[in-house]
Amino acid sequence: MGGLNLEVFKFGTYVLFPIGIMYYFGTNLDNRFTVGGFWPKPEECNHVPKDRDEVVAEYHRIVERQKLRQAHEARRSERGE
């Protein structure tokens, strides 16, 4: 049977193996697991209006878009589609 050296070797293996695995998979995570282009660029995101003039302009844009949509739906219903 083995002696003290074998027990020291086994103990070292039992301790260092999980530490080595955690070190290997735990380092450099940003470069290893990033997905390029996942998050939208700031210019592609919606912008929340901050002052009153921007809020009014956004409101008018939404109302105009809604009127166009209603007119389009009215034309479709007249044609029977």
UniProtKB/TrEMBL annotation:
<keyword id="KW-1133">Transmembrane helix</keyword>
<dbReference type="GO" id="GO:0051082">
    <property type="term" value="F:unfolded protein binding"/>
</dbReference>
<comment type="similarity">
    <text>Belongs to the PET100 family.</text>
</comment>
<protein>
    <submittedName>
        <fullName>Protein PET100</fullName>
    </submittedName>
</protein>
<keyword id="KW-0809">Transit peptide</keyword>
<dbReference type="GO" id="GO:0005743">
    <property type="term" value="C:mitochondrial inner membrane"/>
</dbReference>
<keyword id="KW-0812">Transmembrane</keyword>
<keyword id="KW-0472">Membrane</keyword>
<dbReference type="GO" id="GO:0033617">
    <property type="term" value="P:mitochondrial respiratory chain complex IV assembly"/>
</dbReference>
<dbReference type="Pfam" id="PF09803">
    <property type="entry name" value="Pet100"/>
</dbReference>
<keyword id="KW-0496">Mitochondrion</keyword>
<dbReference type="InterPro" id="IPR018625">
    <property type="entry name" value="Pet100"/>
</dbReference>
